[in-house]
Amino acid sequence: MTASRHLVFASHNSNKTEEIRAILGSDFVLDDLNDIGCHEEIPEPYEALEDNALAKARFVYNKYGKDCFADDTGLKVEALNGRPGVQSARYAGPAKDSDANMAKLLDELQGKTNRKARFRTVIALIVEGKEHLFEGIINGTIAEKPFGKEGFGYDPIFIPEGYNQTFGVLDAAIKNRISHRFAAIKKLADFLQ
Length: 193
Ligand code: IMP
Description:
The protein is an alpha/beta fold. Helices cover 31% and strands 26% of the residues. Strands 1, 2, 3, 4, 5, 6 and 7 form a 7-stranded mixed β-sheet that branches. Strand 5 and strand 6 form a beta hairpin. The chain is globular. The structure holds inosinic acid. The site of inosinic acid has 18 residues, from strand 3 and helix 3.
């Protein structure tokens, strides 16, 4: 029997931590920032998801000396030249209000026929001081208005390719199998196995 591997996920979001624990399985003991007593908000000041994920992982590695990973996600809408992108969380302002973010995006898309969009997650992993990057993407389209209450963020307006309902309507189990975050975490898990 091999010992479980300990990893820190550089996030305060317990929902995400649970989602990732389920993907990584019992070979890993995953602590997040709440578990290790880190209550600071780690800055994400960069224009690239890679740079923000690396900054968060380096912060934890340098301060706590633990193997760790961090993620950063953006929604890129083709007709908006890739916006909101790295600004996804704060698109409508610093309050990180999902309803306001969706309203702004839908407003900007009014009258546009191209509604193609993609979520992209980047994960930065630091193991024994070595840095690794993993990416996960899901393509889809933006609905005309919000549907459903599942998930978070832009889920009520994102229709993943191959489906005709938004992530807000689709079962969480379906989302967790096909999402950008799942794809990136799966690559991380395969790498660590
Ligand atoms: P984060 O890097 O995971 O915090 O994601 C940044 C922002 O992108 C979030 O605040 C959400 O607005 C949006 N986002 C990230 N992942 C998802 C998702 O799975 N569904 C809907 N919105 C998401």
